[in-house]
User: Fold this.
Amino acid sequence: MPDYGWLEQEKLPHALPLAAPSYPPPPWPLPGARFLRVTFETEREALLRWLPPSLMRPVPPYAQILVAHYPESPVGPFSLAVQSLGARARLLVRSYSFEAVTDSQQALLALREQWGFPCRLGEVELRAAQGEAEARIRVAGRTVAAIALREGRVIEPEPPPYVAMAQIDPAYTIHEAWRGRAEVSYPEPSEGAPWHLVPFRGPIIAVHAVADTELPYARFIVPFQT
Amino acid sequence: MKFGIFFELSTPKPWRPDSEYQVYMNALEQAQLADELGFDQIWAVEHHFLEEYSHCSAPEVFLTAVAMRTKRARIGHGVVLCLPPFNHPIRIAERAAALDIVSGGRLEFGTGRSATWTELGGFGVDPDMTKEMWDECVRVIPKMWTQEAFGYQGKFLSMPPRNVIPKPYQKPHPPMWVAVTSPETAIQAAERGLGLLGVSVGTPREYEERVNEYRRRIRECEPVGEFVNEQVNGVTFMYVDESEEEARYWGSQLVRAFAALAAQFPAVSAIYPTPLYKVPGLLFGLRREQEKAQERAEATAAGTPGQGARSGPIREGMAIGDPETVIKQMKLWEALGMDRMVFLLNMGEAIPQEKVLKSLRLFAEHVMPKFDREAPAAKASAKPAAGAQKSTP
Assistant:
């Protein structure tokens, strides 16, 4: 009879990712989060170039930039900026994350590995006051994107589809929300963080909201190629 | 209960130089046959920029051709997008009146306000304004039709007194309708004395409450026109074949083509936060139903029984099946008190033309005779609103 090892699962060496991941598992409660999201029309070719074959473009082609600041999370406060492409998966309205930046090394791995955000480390700044909101996203010292909400006005804090991150489908409890004109610019285009490859071709809407939310398990996954 | 058809003029890719021509010609042939077979309404939608899904951006032109090829069926112009940046209200009144004249007084006038960002964004319309724009339009258009000197100072339309001509052939004017996709709109239709140009999103059972509320509210309405048009139309898909299996195959093609083509367009409610678009509209409502149907089909395939007797993309209430099946499905709507069911016959040319024509013939031969197409709907109110007359189209 050969000799088998004695190790029990709960005593796995702590460095093994399976036994001791470097980040807490979902769901992550994220109370008091602040969001600025702009939705804008872009170019058909830009969408088709960057969408995988299993997704199709909407008509007209549109994209979104979401900037969020989470004052509390299992890894401490962090900010996240996501540029996503409007898409359809079979019959479902979805968005495909194209670029993402976070300012937290601890959040970075989880956002990449647990939720699939194409995250890189950078700076994310979000300011909001009196019906106006602005955000700037910096990578390696370059401002790769800047967004703003202008002439905002208060809207009903009801369950909104308009701040959801589409692949993740988190739940939201909205405390306050404004809506206004969207502005998008790419002041310092960067090949390393190419947010500018999704051109701004006209505003749809900007929304600012304060909400309690969470990052649950990603529940919508499609193959890269159909 | 009566039966009608409606057209989206869906034109699938790949587009050839004559793709749109062929779709239009097929539709005209269907319309002509439907008229001969006894379908009593032929509607055409108004959509803009919804490529593949609907190439029906000038329905008044298409419907004029329909009117010239038909004798009895009423001509459903709708819904006309009653938003001044899309259609100036004077032009709406003029075109509709001319269509009523050339059709010999067969016009049914449907109104609506669009539910896609594709369309509203294309015309630069603020989604927050659409309800007010629509409301102003539906109030002024019947006055343009009936007054010799109509002048108006409003939010979206101002004009000195003018005689808007021609006047409709029907007096005082054609019956007016509104597209209803939510309980709120059903109530607004009733309050204005407009016909409920409804949708069969959901099963007949799910739709019952909306119809009952409409019937109840319209009894106390203040009609925007000269009379109350108390009628309820539902819409659904239709494909009839002698063989249930064949019908289900082609019917599924139709439903799936609709869902796939509609999926391309962002609903206002999905990307633009406004209380005026809490529900996504017909196009998206029907698509959502197909998403649910897909889930049911997958559940069935996995060994879990689907909801109701029907499965896959085919839902309860759809006119898809052999004649006996379709009769049963239509009886569900009749019991609900619908005045009429209006059918989408094809989408993305998913069904060959000869099969669409055969389906129409089978429906007329086997299904229509099982329904009393003269009697008022079972639950319809017979009482006209105070000070107004009930329409008798």
